[in-house]
């Protein structure tokens, strides 16, 4: 691989813009694709993505375009930063334009309802000739562009993809670790959104640090148990894409999922909270999908079931909490290792 690559980032939201800015700052020829022509032209001209990352200057040389063919045609690596609800349709649009050896990496943290499909599995289905991967970790877009020191994970069975992503994104403030457990890394990023909603809700209701520590730890146990059933390596959950991202999103109001939970904890109705957000909070849909899958597989997920019954079965929070606290006594550590 030569030093300078051509890279496209699909999705002009906060995360796509942050990733494109890093890549362009590293001197790679970089395109940021957004679907709306007018928005693309405005961002390209003003050098700012005013809606999603106001006040952040787009790196010199980063080209914002609504022309997918222009963005993708000669590209070595494509990052797909599209929310899960539209991920497949964009992967499909991309297919005719890719050169044969192009690599494609998902940065989305959600699950497609049909068939409980992970984003990287959508890439495998829609772009079967290409090497693919997943980028996930404790990575608030706003902190990346503020040059906070940040760690992330590239997960792929392909060494070529891991190496390329590490080289293309590495900088003094962004460090990328590799993992071959694609499914585990991807489940970590998707599942933690559910627990961020729970932690936000608990914070709004006055939970102290004891409660927060218990929630975080039991969330980790629950997500590891579920992912283990799905074939992931439980050790992945001790890494940045597991416990790292869980801590980040469950303790900060920079997380949209945490903010959704916080507003719910203040008594606001779910529909109003979600529509007022103006950005994607993947956790609400992921909750539906994980609850259904856990029931199907017979995986014990009391926190998921509790949140589900509060949000979608109108159960009172106090009743659910009492039931969780007084439920059958169980063991602390249950990891069986890799
Ligand atoms: N914002 C963050 O800090 C992080 C976000 N992520 C994940 O990245 C994914 C994207 O998130 P954000 O950029 O934050 O979302 P966002 O809500 O900031 O932006 C979403 C972008 O996707 C575009 N989009 C939606 N449907 C589209 C379609 N059919 N065709 C083309 N573009 C479409 C929207 O126009 C918008 O520009 C999510 O899965 C999220 O969980 C991952 C790590 C960090
Ligand atoms: O995934 C994220 C940080 O790693 C962003 O979380 P939210 O989608 O909850 O804002």
Automatic annotation (TrEMBL):
Biological pathway: Membrane lipid metabolism; glycerophospholipid metabolism
Q: Please list the residue ranges annotated as the Glycerol-3-phosphate dehydrogenase NAD-dependent N-terminal domain.
A: 6-161
Predominant location category: cytoplasm
Its recorded reaction(s) are: sn-glycerol 3-phosphate + NADP(+) = dihydroxyacetone phosphate + NADPH + H(+); sn-glycerol 3-phosphate + NAD(+) = dihydroxyacetone phosphate + NADH + H(+)
InterPro entries tied to this protein: 6-PGluconate_DH-like_C_sf, 6PGD_dom2, G3P_DH_NAD-dep, G3P_DH_NAD-dep_C, G3P_DH_NAD-dep_N, NAD(P)-bd_dom_sf
Instruction: Write down the EC number.
Output: 1.1.1.94
Cite the Glycerol-3-phosphate dehydrogenase NAD-dependent C-terminal domain residue spans from the record: 181-321
Protein's UniProt keywords contain Membrane:
no
* Keyword 4Fe-4S attached: no
What are the catalytic residues? Answer: 192 (proton acceptor)
Keywords noted in UniProt: Cytoplasm, Lipid biosynthesis, Lipid metabolism, NAD, NADP, Nucleotide-binding, Oxidoreductase, Phospholipid biosynthesis, Phospholipid metabolism
- Write out the annotated subcellular location: Cytoplasm
Which SUPFAM superfamilies is this protein grouped with?
6-phosphogluconate dehydrogenase C-terminal domain-like, NAD(P)-binding Rossmann-fold domains
Q: Which residues bind sn-glycerol 3-phosphate?
A: 109, 137, 192, 245, 255-257
* Entry binding sites for NADPH: 14-15, 35, 52, 109, 141, 256, 280, 282
Q: Name one GO molecular function term.
A: glycerol-3-phosphate dehydrogenase [NAD(P)+] activity
What domain of life? Bacteria
Q: What does this protein do?
A: Catalyzes the reduction of the glycolytic intermediate dihydroxyacetone phosphate (DHAP) to sn-glycerol 3-phosphate (G3P), the key precursor for phospholipid synthesis.
> Which family is this protein grouped under?
Belongs to the NAD-dependent glycerol-3-phosphate dehydrogenase family.
Q: What is this protein called?
A: Glycerol-3-phosphate dehydrogenase [NAD(P)+]
- Annotated source species: Gilvimarinus japonicus
Q: Which gene encodes it?
A: gpsA
């Amino acid at each position: 691989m030569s030093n300078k690559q051509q890279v496209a980032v699909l999705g002009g939201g906060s995360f796509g813009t942050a990733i494109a800015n890093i890549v362009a700052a590293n001197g790679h020829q970089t395109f940021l694709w957004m679907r709306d022509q007018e928005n693309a032209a405005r961002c390209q001209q003003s050098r700012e993505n005013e809606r999603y990352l106001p006040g952040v200057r787009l790196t010199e040389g980063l080209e914002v375009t609504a022309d997918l063919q222009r963005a993708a045609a000669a590209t070595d690596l494509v990052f797909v930063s599209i929310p899960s609800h539209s991920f497949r349709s964009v992967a499909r649009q991309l297919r005719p334009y890719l050169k044969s050896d192009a690599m494609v990496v998902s940065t989305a943290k959600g699950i497609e309802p049909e068939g409980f499909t992970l984003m990287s599995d959508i890439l495998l289905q829609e772009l079967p000739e290409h090497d693919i991967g997943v980028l996930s970790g404790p990575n608030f877009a706003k902190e990346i562009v503020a040059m906070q020191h940040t760690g992330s994970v590239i997960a792929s069975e392909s060494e070529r993809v891991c190496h390329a992503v590490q080289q293309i994104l590495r900088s003094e403030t962004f460090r990328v670790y590799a993992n071959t457990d694609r499914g585990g890394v991807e489940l970590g990023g998707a599942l933690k959104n559910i627990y961020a909603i729970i932690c936000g809700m608990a914070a709004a209701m006055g939970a102290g640090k004891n409660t927060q520590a218990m929630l975080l730890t039991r969330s980790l146990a629950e997500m590891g148990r579920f992912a283990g059933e799905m074939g992931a390596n439980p050790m992945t959950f001790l890494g940045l894409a597991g416990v790292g991202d869980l801590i980040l999103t469950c303790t900060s109001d920079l997380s949209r999922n945490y903010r959704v939970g916080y507003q719910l904890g203040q008594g606001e109705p779910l529909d109003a909270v979600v529509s007022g957000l103006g950005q994607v909070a993947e956790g609400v849909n992921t909750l539906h999908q994980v609850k259904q899958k856990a029931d199907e597989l017979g995986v014990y997920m009391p926190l998921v079931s509790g949140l589900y019954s509060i949000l979608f079965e109108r159960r009172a929070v106090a009743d659910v909490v009492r039931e969780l606290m007084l439920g059958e006594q169980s063991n602390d550590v249950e990891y069986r290792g890799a």
